[in-house]
Amino acid sequence: xxxxxxxxPEWRGGWWRxxxxxxxxxxxxxPASAQVTLAVVHSISLxxxxxxxxxxxxxxxxTLDWDAHPYFEQIRGIEVSAHFxxxxxxxxxxFVGCDDRAWHAGAxxxxxxxxxxxxxxxxxxxxxxxxxxxxxxxxxxxxxxTALAARYPIDAIAGHEHVAPGRKHDPGPGFDWAHLARALRxxxxxIPPASHPADGG
Length: 201
Prior knowledge:
Pfam families: Amidase_2. With 201 residues, the chain is of the alpha/beta class. It has one domain (3-187): Lysozyme-like (3-Layer(aba) Sandwich), CATH 3.40.80. Helices cover 17% and strands 20% of the residues. The strands form four sheets. A six-stranded mixed β-sheet has the order 3-7-6-11-5-12. The chain is globular and about 45 Å long. The chain starts with 10 loop residues before the first strand and ends in an 18-residue tail after the last helix.
């Protein structure tokens, strides 16, 4: 195939070309020996239950107006990030390159290994904890996971609730793990059977 006809690579470093890039200052290096072996699914909406605005992007880039809504007083000053954010319509943003460590899981453990941020990719879905998610979001998540599997030795995906049981409950019972398992069956990843703590430690 002539070089001018070759498809563009799907990744540019740790940045996925399928996402809109909006770099966050909230990241750091992964430990030198760490391999990316886990994807962690979260849910987020700001204010809770309200969709479609730009508050999540502002939160992850430290530009949120803390006075724009009364709820924001509860999270004033927090500095967090995720690698990816999938909107209700399936559009996806990336804030941190996957070769770097985003600040999404907090105190966490998976399969007896602590500090999931060191070896996980964080994926936020626009939604309310416990609520349902849109078909477009599942479709994007499947594309993203397939792309991640082609670049990193990931062998499992879990919810925030699984890696921080008792402390976190997202994405919650509205997330359809069975649907995701069917869609990703070719990857042979470990996938939780239901939205309750399973492999967290």
